Amino acid sequence: MKQPLSAFLIVALTAAISCNSGEANKATTSDAPAFSIDSARAAITASNKTFGECWATGDSTKFAGCYSSDACINPPNMPRMCGSKAIMAFFNGGYQMGVRNIRITTEELFGGPEAVSEIGTYEMFADKNVSIDKGKFIVVWKQENGKWKMHRDVWNSDNPPPPPPPPAK
């Protein structure tokens, strides 16, 4: 009984080593460009700049273009909104409320070729650069057609919530 088990272990170990070395060779000879967090950071920084500028121009289409085709946003005190139409509607509502710019500061960025997570802070402005909100966010980015796009976006304000309405008399 020991000989068949030993033979099986040797065959299994040899197969595992062969498979792993084959995978290593595939990884080094692949035509796909190697993932670079610096490259992702540059693309995300450029997208964040465009994202903020959309508020100044009122361009909801360009704004939604910063997101993947199957993106979802998770605004504070609202239900989750998914897809380009919902994201454009959210943008249009914010624009009508007076949002004219958002400044995004990335504090952490990590991940790999499948997805990158961004953690940071934001500040939202109305006309004449008047600050109307500050908070924090987490965005999961993914590549779509070779470009990094926001895939999941969640944020919340650092401002205290408004007081509850007075009790009815």
Structural notes for this entry:
The protein has 169 residues and is an alpha+beta fold. The protein has one domain (37-157): Roll (Nuclear Transport Factor 2, Chain: A), CATH 3.10.450. It has helices at residues 2-29, 37-57, 60-64, 84-96; strands at 67-74, 81-82, 101-111, 116-125, 131-144, 147-157.
The 3D shape can be described as: elongated
Largest sheet: 6 strands, mixed
Order of helices and strands: HHHEEHEEEE
- The tally of helices reads 4
Task: For the structure shown, list the relevant keywords.
6-stranded mixed β-sheet; alpha+beta; Nuclear Transport Factor 2, Chain: A; 40% helix; elongated; 6 strands; 169 residues
Structure described in brief:
A hairpin with a 4-residue loop joins β3 and β4.
Strands, helices and their partners?
Elements: H1 2-29, H2 37-57, H3 60-64, E1 67-74, E2 81-82, H4 84-96, E3 101-111, E4 116-125, E5 131-144, E6 147-157
Parallel strand pairs: 1-6
Antiparallel strand pairs: 1-2, 3-4, 4-5, 5-6
